[in-house]
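[audit] Reproducing an earlier prediction to check determinism. Same input, same settings, fresh worker. If the tokens differ from the archived copy the diff job will pick it up downstream; this log only records the rerun itself.
[audit] input (146 residues):
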Amino acid sequence: MKRLGSFFDEIYGFDGMSSFLLFISVILNLVTGMWPSQAVNNFNLISYLPLLGCIFRVFSRNHERRAHENECFLKLARPLCENIIEKREEQAEAKLFRFFKCPVCKQKLRVPKGKGKVEITCPKCGNKFIKKSLGICFAQQRRRSQ
């Protein structure tokens, strides 16, 4: 039992890149499993390569190299993840706010929905412009229905 414990102490384990490789392998297996074509079945064998890479990374004992690889992967993946998170937050805020761009500096500005015509002052360049803030925000809609 001590040998098994020391084995698990020495391995690298899961990180962001290993999780990504596992995810890609599962998705490829699911997608290729839907089509009964022979050409797709050959591609199904290729879908096991990310799984093998994941297993190799998890059970590796070269911690420094795996950490460096994960750091490089996260540098590439971070902007994409931040973009996805930003879009989700924007969709959640779209229920309460309207978004406009300043015509001068293109700064993105938000205005509460349902306020009618609003004079908007850009905090970045100080430009003032008038826009309609039409639409009923979720809170106002709930109050009206009661």
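[audit] rerun output stored. Observation attached for the diff report: The two ends are 65 Å apart (CA to CA).
[audit] end
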